[in-house]
Design goal:
Layout: E1 2-5, H1 56-76, H2 83-92, H3 95-110, H4 114-135, H5 138-149, H6 156-171, H7 178-206, E2 209-212, H8 223-235, E3 241-244, H9 247-256, H10 260-271, H11 283-299, H12 305-309, H13 318-350, H14 361-373, H15 377-380, H16 386-401, E4 404-407, E5 420-425, E6 431-440, E7 450-455, E8 466-474, H17 487-505, H18 518-521, H19 523-528, H20 535-541, H21 553-561, H22 567-584, H23 594-605, H24 621-624, H25 635-652, H26 659-670, H27 678-686, H28 692-699
Parallel strand pairs: 1-7, 6-8
Antiparallel strand pairs: 2-3, 4-5, 5-6, 7-8
Helix pairs in contact: 1-2, 1-3, 1-4, 1-5, 4-7, 5-6, 7-11, 9-10, 9-14, 13-14, 13-22, 16-17, 16-20, 22-23, 25-28, 26-27
Pfam families: Peptidase_M3
Family: Belongs to the peptidase M3 family.
Cofactor: Zn(2+)
Amino acid sequence: MQYLVAAAFGLPLIGAGTLVATDALAQSPTANPLLAEWTGTYGGVPPWDKVKPELFPAAFEAALAERAADYRRIADDPAAPTFANTFVPMQLAGQRYGRVMTLFGVMTGNMNSPAYQALDREWSPKFAAASDAITFDPKLFARIEAVYKARTKLDAQQQRLVTRTYDSYVRQGAKLNAAQKAQLSAYNQQLASAFSDFSKRLLADEGTAILVTDEAQLAGVPDSVKAVAKAAAAERGQTGWAIVNTRSAVDPVLTFASDRDLREKVWRAFTNRGDNGDANDTNAVIAQIVKLRADRAHLLGFRTHADWRMQDTMAKTPAAAMDLMLRVWPAAKARVGEEVRDMQAIADKSGVKITIEPWDYRFYQEQVRKARYDLDQAQLKPYFELNNIIQGSLYAANRLYGLNFKEITGTVPVFEPNMRVWHVTDRNGKEVGLFYRDDFARTGKRSGAWANTYRGQRNLAPAQNVLSSNNNNFAKGAKGEPILISLDDAQTLFHEFGHAIHAMLQNVTYPGLAGTPRDFVEYPSQVNEHWLLTRDVLDKYARHYQTGAAMPQALLDKIEASKTFNQGFATTEYLSSAIVDMKLHTVADGIVDPDAFERKALAEIGMPREIVMRHRLPQFNHLFSSDSYSAGYYSYLWSETMDADTFAAFEEAGSPWDKATADRFAKILLSTGNETDRAEAYRAFRGRDPDVNALLRKRGFPTGAAK
């Protein structure tokens, strides 16, 4: 689950090149709709119905030139540098470029045809070059530095914006000499190309599928899952059932299919994505990325890529992040041993002579769940009809934060006919913006679940409202069939909606203070997961899709009793990925053989043989499709520590709906972007630092492991 947001205008990304001045667009907005202002109601909306890949090259040229001109005017201003004549225009610079890049970024994630892949390969290095041209401009940085040195005369928000901008420019190489800047430019452009190459290769492997022609092989698989597989085969022009090589298609087969050979075949295809020694193998690309990152870090004065990346995080250092992970790891690993013993006992009792292997884990954990809690995941699905759960998420946001949602699907452009859109207002009727949903898997859409912000809120004139989206890969079955999702999928829906709530509640003046540290980003979304299983949401929205009956209390009791079930598996598959990420990006010289490194790193921490990393390196999209989560996958655990402690505040107040707690949470943490240090903001909300024991209790681990 990733959170993707358009870069705040005025804070250029990392790249390289020459700052080019121009006073006119290279192409008229009337001739190219991608360059036009977003018009219509709701503060203007993206022209998704007009987006075509062939329109982007001219739009890129024009928007890049206009952004360069915006910064050129700031750099060349003859007046002495001030906050008003330097930082305010920087906050507003490159808005057309931001809109074009939002359109392109969404299309490459959601509708990634070969034409978009070709554009991404060609233009990614150019974007990097153009952004570095801004960062490296000595006249512009001299103005930034002058205001920074006189910052004590500014108010608190202005000081924070100036300090963060100055620090960002320095981290990105603004103080390097000309030769060093040229070298950094080369690294950044090579990385941009490599990220595009990695994404293309992985997407190709995720587009493959295993065809099943004998329905007997699917024994045990629920009818709803088989219907999805049948639809996938039909989409490919095949007869039978196609198990697509994505998590949403693979996990149900691994959980329910009694055919062990099929489970192994599906598991191997999924875990070997990007690691098959063929044209889509990603290992060489990963080695190139890791080496380039290390070289870039050294050039910028840091020992490792992780040290460089973590300067602007809550954890601050790789050691602090690793310390948290290793405090949780022993308890998680010990729990895996218990889980495997329980599964092996059931396998032995059934008479099959096997030793539990990774492709058995989900299947036998389900058998243990049934035996221990009389709980079958298939029992739950009828209560989690997608449209109802969406309505439940909106209800919770309204009750907690006063957000009101009115569906307006069909009245604004979308890029895919199954998308839905809501108009959002606050409790006083003031417009907040729009919320879009793109829920279904399809060819060309990257795997996983994520949130986008098409347009972020700001109060700086001209003020703008929010355009937020959620993107999932739920399986859409045959026409007319109900869309039933798993409990895990329902939690993912609430998780991603937490990102949208964060965006919709934001109330900041300067867009440069909107983005939060990587290890804070997942916190609001993880908190939001807690409201799915509240009795109120379940009674109103988790109703049986056939009978309309609410989920029986006895079934909810079983879910509650099993909440810490299988946490050894869940924690270990995630933590192993996070630990390997950090180990990889603390290799000082960056020279690695990804497969060999992965094996060695897992051996060092004693990875249980029955579990594979949630994301093996050859398919670790978080790390290698951009810099975004590199040396940062630990952030889910960091955020969950705050998340568990935050929900404990609601419990201490006596209700998950406690208004005073919700109001404080929204006011201090959700609405403030990065206007204050996030650790200080958390302390202001909770009265102390987060308690890691809340996380351990949530996962059912001994709290003594935190000492």
